[in-house]
Amino acid sequence: MKALRLTLMVVAVVALAGSAAAQNTVYADASAAMNGTNFGLVLDLDGSTSNAFVEDQTPADETVYRASFWFDPNDLSMSPTNKFVIFLARDATFVNILRLQFNYLNGAYRVRLQVLKNNSAWADTRLNDTDGARFITIGNEPTWITIEAVFGDATASLAQVTANGVTHYKTTYQSTLWSVDRIRMGGPRMGQAQGGPFTGTVYFDEFESFRTLAP
Amino acid sequence: MNRAPIRLAAMTVALLATSLVSAQTTQPGDAIDIEIFNPIDGSNAFCVAPNEIVEARIFVRPGTNALSCTLSCSGPNVPGGSANIATAVIDLAFDGSKLSYVSDSIESNAATAAVQGLPQEQNLVDNRIGWALAGSWTTPGDPGSTLLSPCDMQMVTTADWLFRMQFQAAADGTTTLRLRQESDSEPFALSFADICGTEAFKQSNGGIDEIRHAVVMVSSDCSDLIFFDNFGTGGTERWAETSGS
User: Fold this and answer.
1) How far is it, in rounded angstroms, from Cα A139 to Cα A145?
2) pTM to 2 decimal places
3) Could you give the ipTM of this predicted complex?
4) Does the domain made of A24-210 have the CATH classification 2.60.120.200?
């Protein structure tokens, strides 16, 4: 009986050690290089739900914010409707106010931008503002993605994402409570991912951000 | 109105104002550090408009390990160790499609042996520019004179910039000014030496412990830039936080 108990304890310890070691990771690596660079950022997903991201804290309560980066799904294995956030903007009180979701459906990878309204509800960007597709299809290849947002009243507010030459946007909503104070790129909300577990790598590169909309 | 004098004056003021900046990102320690830095703010990043000139400098921080030795040419207590660098071999690689080489010059601080170093321009055709220090000349900066005795030579003993390069920006995008090193796919013998040791200070023996490359963004929107990174340094150190690393 004691032998059985000892065996169970050993198994439990090993299992605990295994779960403690499991975590998603981010790191710079040549394998993620895109657009002629030497390195890119790897989001390495091991099937766990831990967050893994790089965070830029340079934004200073930006009411106009633009970010662009290369993203490559790199053949990540996903089931239909699986979804997780790959870009997240937060305000100074750590409220999530802008997020780009990465999704898979009908054999295609897709992205969708959502913005937080004053009433704390998320609004989708769409092909025609209030109707049309919510997701933009991207290939299993490097894609240049641009995210733009203006936080303000209903006459000024704008959330917009452009990928593969397609732009989806949202206007006429109240977002006066928010501004961008920091952003995260990678897998900043893996604990809240839809579906999974996710095992594999996706790539990011050439991140850039501005306090103006695209020229 | 000819804006060139104004621009030159503004650049001079900016450089003077920032010459006191010592916001290098490496930290003092036993081993030697080397950085490519922006003289405007001490960072390892640049943003420059297309066709404009960007100036990068190479900064070296000697280590804190000071020792002495006796050489045949003089009495005891010749300074050595990582705190007293006698020779150096540095090479920098750049992307010729984004940046074109314009000029280079050495540091003008006569108090250090840095004035003795020589630019290495022979590999510009391969988009490389270097700097080497092989000793001190009897006439400072004149390789036509003879080398001083090791016992008489000056050494790099102070953290300072040694060498500056100017590049003209070309196409939009990001690129990296990269210090070539032993661990590269095409290894380069980045190293320093004192006059007492038998082995040069290198990464592989812990003699160099911090190397900072620089990232360059070519954009017309530099005034509105918040942040950028192409991970060209091989790490994520430009980001304020990395979770899951």
Assistant:
1) 12
2) 0.82
3) 0.90
4) yes
